[in-house]
């Protein structure tokens, strides 16, 4: 099945996306330290037989660039909205993970005509939480001063202890030696300054919020707050660390499919 790739030039940035398959659109939004292909390339075939799968690079990841000026979640939502419009598949289902889930929620609140259903995995409503600030500030300091240690730190928070142990020493070292995604410091800073509490109450699309049992980056209590803030939303929990599409893709894909 052919993948169609496209670059869109916006007034303030450039975004990239590819599509695969035919049918109702389903768009996947990646997190802070990845791009569309590395996050979701391995699960595209699970959906592309019956759907048009849309995989963007946004927020400066992959083949995209950051919006000019101070990065804000509203600008990232604008990037995603333009991708949906360009794909000619609106309204689409949006599946977001981590900061991608935050952006997905903003898209649903600000551009409701573009969204059919919403799946938010490990989202959070506000960064004004002492623990969240501690984790993200530590991550940012390490990223600025010791990138190898930053990767080790983030790895310990995005994978469950059991899964991380199963990788073995050599694999863990290989991962830690990989460079972080470009401009990650700016996205971590964004993660320190999220507040979408007011927007969540405006979401009127069918929404599934997914918490991850062993997630220490965005713990369950933060995810549950999002669920409680979206009227009529459903909640599910998957046994996994933060990077569920890597650690437990089978259960995650099944959960998404069952809702959509």
TrEMBL record:
The entry's keywords: Hydrolase
GO cellular component labels: membrane
Highest taxon of source: Bacteria
UniProt KW Glycoprotein keyword: no
Residues annotated as domain AB hydrolase-1: 26-249
GO MF terms held by the record: hydrolase activity
Record Gene3D superfamilies: alpha/beta hydrolase
Pfam families (alphabetical): Abhydrolase_1
Protein name, UniProt field: Alpha/beta hydrolase
